[in-house]
Amino acid sequence: MTTDTRSPAEPLDLLGVGIGPFNLSLAAMADRVDGLRTAFFDRTQEFRWHPGLMIEGTTLQVPFLADLVSLVDPTSPWSFLSYLRATGRLFPFYFSEQLHIDRAEYDAYCRWVSRELRQCRFGHQVDAVAWDEDRQAFTVDYTYESAGGEEVLAGRTSTRNLVLGIGTEPSVPSVLRHLTDSPDVLALHSADYLSRRAELLAQRHVTVIGSGQSGAEVFLDLLRSRPSGAEGLQWVSRSPSFAPMEYSKLGLEQFTPDYTRFFHRLPEPTRDRLLPQQWQLYKGISADTIADIHDELYRRTIDGGWPDAVLRPATGVRGGRAHAGRIELELEHSQDGGRERLTTDAVVLATGYTERPSNALLRSLDPHVVRDAAGRPLVDADHRLVLDGPVRGSVFVQNAERHTHGVGAPDLGLAAWRSAVILNAMTGREIHRLPSRTAFTTFGTPHTPGRAGHGEPAGGTTRPAARR
Fold it and tell me: Which helix H or strand E contains 423, and what residues bound it?
């Protein structure tokens, strides 16, 4: 390994760690700001968005306007419509009359943007971050590896501000982790579904655990691919029902900046109590997918039989073990209290994702991170970690602040707005003009200072004191 000395004499204004949709949105929004010096690093060699779940025909759960930029800057050259124009597909898209695009097309659009933006640097893994008091900037150590592995460099650069967009990682229940780690049985997270699909289809019986959108899509794909009468499928979920995602127009206003600001002002115990109650906003299944599953099951009854597919809500998995090359699951029904054992050949865990920890990356800053009663980092209204002590630079976070900003944190529809808030806060000026009102719903008690109502700032421009 050699050392890369190509560090700018002046610190960057902003360095992004990770290039997922949210930091890619920020890179695209920052691209039109004159004089702003940015770079975005990602350890992978190219943009890839949930490759294991690119099941044919699956679509985004948000309209195409929830691209990287349009809900703040629809004239941007990095919009989805600009992508269609650049690839010569604008008229075919117009005639297709699509509101929700295929997931694969969203991935292709983001990959196009990431290739066009020079500030997106793949093959760069950020290893450590420290605050340099003398330079009043963050020192960032990274490792660069070329696509073929021919060149490996240890590098260092500096930046006045950071934004962490390191994403999420698959969440595997602790009682089942030994199964996914075992080479003796076929147990995997849904994030790896497509890479193991052929193996799953070769099994006589497959169990899907989890009733969110991913679990529904995996179950439907397996169902469609197996012969009638010999489906050999079970779908298990601890949720009380296979419930639709909230998709009413007023219900969706909980994904607006208005609601995000309201949620951020609530006391910590109230926020923690609210989030689990809102599970149908982000853990439910699209009504179209539910209908497709029911239609597929119904078609398999035309000859008078019933499909060998069992749907089991309100059923928790207490544990599991490998036995003679198969998997034995311990199940418990949460309503009637019944317990039983289910033997299956393979398990797909559609058990969601959790925020990827940044502890190792920010180890040197940890003493200065202000935390809440549960030990989680405090994040201010501008999506910035609250820091005390000598650190004067800002560390912004993307999709790591659900505990402070609510269900909209991982939602693609708020990507452009959050990017604009971050840029406005970082520069101390209104780079992007944001609306003061975005919902018909009034969240909280109106006309009460500090609680609710519209007409509040759409994103701060000064750094708050490190307190809460």
Answer: helix 415-427
Contacts of 74 (CB under 8 A, 6+ apart): none
287: helix, strand or coil: helix
What tens digit of pLDDT does each residue of 106-130 get? 999 999 999 999 999 999 999 999 9
* Contact present, 346 and 251 (Cβ < 8 Å): no
Helix, strand, coil percentages in the chain from 3-state DSSP, rounded to 5? 30, 25, 45
Question: Residue 2: pLDDT above 80?
Answer: no
Q: Distance between CA 357 and CA 366 in Å, rounded?
A: 12
Q: Which residue did the predictor score with more confidence, 375 or 147?
A: 375
Residue ranges in 225-363 assigned as alpha helix (H) = 257-265, 268-277, 279-282, 287-299
Q: What pTM was estimated for this model as a whole? A: 0.92
DSSP string for 336-380: T--EEEEEESEEEE---EEEPP-TTTTGGGGGGB-B-TTSPBPB-
Closest CA to 103 of 154, 158, 64: 64
Angle at alpha carbon of residue 288, lines to 65 and 342, rounded to 5°:
125
b/e per residue 191-223 (b: at least 16 CB within 10 A):
bbbbebbeebeebebbbbbbbbbbbbbbbbbbb
* Assigned token pair, 67: 């691209």
For the record, the structure tokens of 39 come out as 């770079």
Q: Give the residue-averaged pLDDT of 34-57.
A: 95
**In terms of Cα–Cα distance, which of 141, 142, 117 is closest to 130?**
141
pLDDT of residue 147: 86
